[in-house]
Amino acid sequence: MTTDPLTIGIVSFAHPHALSYARALGQRADVRLVATDPGPYAPGEDRGAELAESAAIPYVDTVDELYAEGLDGVIICTENARHRPFVEQAAAAGVPVLCEKPLATTVADAEAMVAACERAGVPLMVAFPVRFSPAFAALREALAAGAVGELRALTGTNNGQLPAGRGWFADPELAGGGALTDHVVHIADLVDALTDGTPAASVYAQSNNLLHPTAAVETAGLVSVRYANGLLLTIDCSWSKPADYPTWGGLTLQAVGEAGIADLDAFGERVDGFAGGRQTWLSYGADADAVLLDAFLAGIRDRTAPQPDGHVGVRTARIVAAAYESARSGQPVELG
Predict the structure, then answer these.
(1) How far is Cα of residue 278 from the mean position of the Cα atoms in its chain?
(2) What is the CA radius of gyration of the chain?
(3) Which residues form the GFO/IDH/MocA-like oxidoreductase domain (predicted)?
(4) What 3-state DSSP class applies to 201?
(5) Which has fewest Cβ within 10 Å: 16, 108, 163, 222?
(6) Of 333, 316, 263, 300, nearest to 122 (Cα)?
(7) Which residue from 61, 63, 62 is spatially nearest to 50, judged by alpha carbons?
(8) Predicted TM-score of the model (pTM)
(9) Are the C-beta atoms of residues 76 and 53 closer than 8 Å to each other?
């Protein structure tokens, strides 16, 4: 296993997590960071070379120049619908990939990305940072130890603000959808981890945009999932938090077993207070993005495929696709 610094590239600043990853990687002595931000950009977006300069991120103008840097790994942070070509390019170059969630906006694209990486022998990891939070680690350990007995059902919430500053989040072509696309996959990934990849058997969903009537995508949804092992999951996903909410939103998960209940608040490590006349949350504890990056870098050095891998991305994409089909038809969707 090499101990030389790894050269890690970031493709696109479209997703806000790109800056979080860049900050975390920029502080590491074992990483050389370089980024590029291929357009097109929406008018007024803070993107490209100017954003890189303001954030002190080493920058090149094109993706070809990025790969000419001799990448050991690449992080894809484009708009959701543009993940596939950049992941396939990385696979062709033999470069391990960390792809922002959701893996793709269609199941076909997700499957094609996994197939391309497997043919090339390239690890493909999906960026689900909540899986790496201390709160989820504690829940996982408690359930494995039998704290609630046999697991029967789970209830998840992932509610946030209408994304600002990146208009593509509410563009159905670039994002693939709204709150269902943005938030269902996080909860689905946690359940995937708890059940060792047990597939969903059926999905029922309802959605609307009553909270933001001018939005071109749904801004709230309720999703029910029945898994092949009989486990039941409900997900409350929305962009329902007001603009003056102290943070972007939050995620919770309640596990119900035959002998008890266990609760997770993924962002509960905080101090509540007021500053400047407004409610403020001061977070503390581990940075889940940084821990996710630790796993990605370890996989590069060890030549292993870290979890969550592309197959998790496909399983979560199937749940989202079925949720949209169900919301359109008003009927449950059975998955083969």
Answers:
(1) 29
(2) 20
(3) 136-261
(4) strand
(5) 108
(6) 300
(7) 61
(8) 0.95
(9) no
Same domain, 326 and 196: yes
Render pLDDT for 189-238 as a digit per residue (tens, 0 to 9): 999 999 999 999 999 999 999 989 999 999 999 999 999 999 999 999 99
Domain count, the chain: 2
Judgement on whether residues 147 and 204 belong to the same structural domain of the protein: yes
CATH of the domain at 41: 3.40.50.720
Which residue range forms the structural domain that includes residue 144?
131-288+317-334
Beta strand extents in the chain (DSSP E only): 6-11, 31-36, 73-76, 97-100, 124-127, 151-161, 200-208, 220-227, 232-241, 249-257, 260-265, 270-275, 278-283, 333-334
- Is residue 47 within 8 Å of residue 110, measured between CB atoms? no
Domain assignment present for residue 19? The answer is: yes
Residues in the chain: 336
Q: Domain check: are 186 and 270 in the same one?
A: yes
Structure tokens at 110: 């997700």
Q: What are the φ/ψ torsions at residue 334 (nearest 5 degrees)?
A: -90, 135
Alpha-carbon distance of 255 to 263, in angstroms, equals: 6
